[in-house]
Amino acid sequence: MIAVELRGVRKSFGTQRVLDDIDLSVPAGSVFALLGPNGAGKTTVVNILATLVAPDSGTASVGGYDVRTARDSAKGVLSLTGQSVAVDEVLTGSENLIMVSRLWGLSRRESRLRARALLEQFDLADAARRQVKTYSGGMRRRLDLALSLIRRPEVLFLDEPTTGLDTRSRRSLWAQIRDLRSAGTTIFLTTQYLEEAEQLADRVAVLAGGRIVADGTPAELKSQVGEDVVEIRSADDELLGAVATDGSVDGLHRAITQLAEVAQPDATVSLRSPSLEDVFLSLTGPALQQKEVQS
Amino acid sequence: MTALSPRRRVAVGVSELTFIERSLRRSVRNVDALLMAIMLPVLVMFLFTFVFGGSIDPSGNYVNYVVPGIILLCAGFGASSTAVDVAGDMTTGIIDRFRSLPIPATAVLTGHVVASLLRNLVATGVVVVVALAVGFRPTGGPGDWLAAISVVALYILAITYLFAAIGLASSSPEAASGYGFILLFLPYLSSAFVEVSTLPSWLQPIAQYQPVTPTIEAIRSLLMGTSMGNNAVIAVGWCVLILVIAATWGAWLFRRKAGHR
Ligand SMILES: Nc1ncnc2c1ncn2[C@@H]1O[C@H](COP(=O)(O)OP(=O)(O)OP(=O)(O)O)[C@@H](O)[C@H]1O
Ligand SMILES: [Mg+2]
């Protein structure tokens, strides 16, 4: 079953075309990561799916419900943690959670219980009775995430969920995302951290220039870059250059020759498998070094 | 869209109640604004009864004249923070969370409006109690009081709606608080502090034909037994007109800013 689908979606703001014919589909129960440089339109995609922004043309559906013609049904199955934290600063953490629980239709008693459980789960129990304006950035973000998990949604949208979280909170969120996935929730996330996509995502797509320029499993995308990456680093471990190769002896030869141009006297060369970062940079960055090697 | 939408899980009225509760909590926590909404009218009353009162009306009866005006000053002042609250919600991103929930997002505005109504009625009550303590001696019976409270409530509702719309139109809470002050001048250009006939002639039509004067005169008539004329009708007419305009403008702004863009 398909949980999230975009067909021929276009969106412009004024004269600026942000999305140009986007097609995506995410199978139910999987984790999908949308990558892309700043301003690529990731948040716009999420907002279209979360029914906040209308596409200019094309169709979008969540849980089988069209976000335009069955908007209320779509809202009923999705939950959103937007890029900017959306909490009430004047209320306490606990009051925020109770408020949103009530809005989801839970009774007062259920709301209190749910709030307590989520505060515990997101490591906020000690701050439950404090006004949110006294919270640190990471605490706000955790509360924001908790507010999206009042009920286990069918589809959860997370727009850069771990920005501003420390390593421990990030790991804990990753664990929770995996738990939600095994409970059947489809997760659609955007991130700037490629390690995050690598760790979590069943499938990854890269958005650049208003189009989807790559779409596949992390392994598929990495194999597009090449078999191996040859890296050259200076004595103080600064990356001087990296070239993808096809794994053949000739390829490696060519790579080394090319890297010799940037080499410094005591630079070292190493061979590693490609990462999603290489994929990302090769698709969105200016330096398409592996193309030169292959041509 | 609404006609085809399936039955909502959330019972009718629960989202409105939840938002009213939220706005009331915020009001109570915003001690500065709450104190100002009560303190400022009380101070203005002291100023006019004790400092200027003697020269305006040497008989010492000025307090009975000025209190109805102070009541409206208080109502307008307390309602202006609605603009700040609404602008805050619209610009902080929390509106997007509410809009992504299966509830009518306009309920958040209902919350602010109802909370403002209750907040201002309480503040007005405090002002009246203080007025009684400094010599305000109304002559109206219980029925007159009830009618006066209804007029005050209608006025607060109209002004609150207007400030809610101003909040929607503002680019930030700071901007919203700026617009608020413009509207607070109206009571000073009315019959609140002196009779219209004593104003400079060029100012008299402005004072006569603005909504605050008939509203004050209606309250004055109900509480102090001055002649009513058609002030009540004009006052209610003004309030309803303001309500309709503010609600239409607000609905249009809300659709534009928080609709399905
Ligand atoms: N409401 C809007 N009005 C006008 N332009 C907008 C609006 N929303 C987004 N844009 C523009 O659309 C483009 C894509 O924005 P979007 O927020 O979707 O990017 P993003 O991929 O999420 O970026 P980031 O990684 O920085 O979060 C940007 O150029 C932005 O300026
Ligand atoms: Mg974004």
From TrEMBL, chain A:
It is found in: Cell membrane. Signal peptide: none annotated. Residues 4-234 form the ABC transporter domain. The keyword Transcription does not apply. GO terms for molecular function: ATP binding; ATP hydrolysis activity. SMART domains: AAA. It comes from the Bacteria. GO terms for cellular component: plasma membrane. Coiled coil: none annotated. Its main location: membrane. GO terms for biological process: daunorubicin transport; doxorubicin transport; response to antibiotic. It holds the Pfam family ABC_tran. Keywords: Antibiotic resistance, ATP-binding, Cell membrane, Membrane, Nucleotide-binding, Translocase, Transport. It is a peripheral membrane protein. Belongs to the ABC transporter superfamily. Drug exporter-1 (DrugE1) (TC 3.A.1.105) family. This is ATP-binding cassette domain-containing protein. It comes from Mycetocola zhadangensis.
TrEMBL record, chain B:
This is Transport permease protein. Belongs to the ABC-2 integral membrane protein family. Signal peptide: none annotated. GO terms for cellular component: ATP-binding cassette (ABC) transporter complex. The keyword Transport applies. It is a multi-pass membrane protein. One of its GO terms (biological process) is response to antibiotic. Residues 32-257 form the ABC transmembrane type-2 domain. The keyword Transmembrane applies. Its main location: membrane. It is found in: Cell membrane; Membrane. Keywords: Antibiotic resistance, Cell membrane, Membrane, Transmembrane, Transmembrane helix, Transport. One of its GO terms (molecular function) is ABC-type transporter activity. InterPro entries: ABC2_TM, ABC2_TM_bact-type, ABC_2_transport, Nod_factor_ABC_transporter. The chain crosses the membrane at residues 33-56, 62-84, 105-133, 145-169, 176-194, 232-254.
